[in-house]
Amino acid sequence: MEIDFVIEKFILVTAIFAISLVIAMYSTYAERKVAAFLQDRLGPDRAGPFGLLQPLADGVKMFMKEEIIPANANKWLFMIGPGLAMLCACIGTAVIPWGQDMMVGDRLVKLQVTDINVGLLYIFGVISLGVYGVMIGGWASNNKYSLLSSIRAASQNISYEIGMGLSIIALLLVTNSLSLREIVAQQHGWQWNVLYQPLGFIIFMVCAFAETNRAPFDLPECEAELNGGYTIEYSSMKLGFYLFAEYINMFVSSTIMAALYFGGYNYPGMDYMATLLGPTWAPLFGTLIFFLKIFAFIFFFMWVRWTIPRFRYDQLMNLGWKGLIPLAIANIIITGIVIAILKF
Fold it and tell me: pLDDT tens digits for 150-165?
């Protein structure tokens, strides 16, 4: 049984890792197609039918490019930075419940790598570590633009982690759990947390944009001022790791928002579908619904990037400290009062 458990988890980890890489790879294609649609043009359409092989062509190009390490850079930290960014981006999926328990033969399989009772704290720990890859790469490059970029990234992440954490406190008052599996299971059918915490969701989503360095919060990369920011000295697959890490972070952020606020694998009529499809296929159908929600959020990330202009740095900080944090505190107080009244 122990060997079966190890094999089961190994298959699940490999599948999630592969899916994360494929989604990140084709997010680059989707980004360019969404931008082209919004700007009334075609986008990539040469590599393969409808340009579907463009991500593979870009990947081959990254592998074939020359590796360049600046003479005055800290060589080891320069190499560690992209790897750390990629590692922190990938391990965030370990506590995500991708579906209900499913039957495979006579064995009950959990579609989750690990179910820890402090899954939300784990997610926040991983998010906090992610900025170290940017900081180390920016400092190790020995370039003033990359150093300024890493300072921006650190201050931005610290500022918006506070608002994100406060928005989660209000959600914890509603769910009484730190386990992602329990939080998702409570949102059966239409009982999604976004209906009870709409303000908390908006605050969390805005903070997620800032944590992933996505526009209009892409100040660490700001081409007009910093010439590309912390990636300015990087080439080949080191640059590719940073770009992949950003898209995987976008995928993980979309997954967390869909799980916490939009029911995850839950959907209306799931009890009927469980009866119709049985204990093997019904959980997989729920997983498909979960991924549709995730793709909707990824599209929203891209839509915002090509619609809203970048903030100035003072506007970025003012929004975080003077806008989102007071709103998140007010949301906690209102939620606490409402729960106290309902219990009374």
Answer: 888 889 988 999 999 9
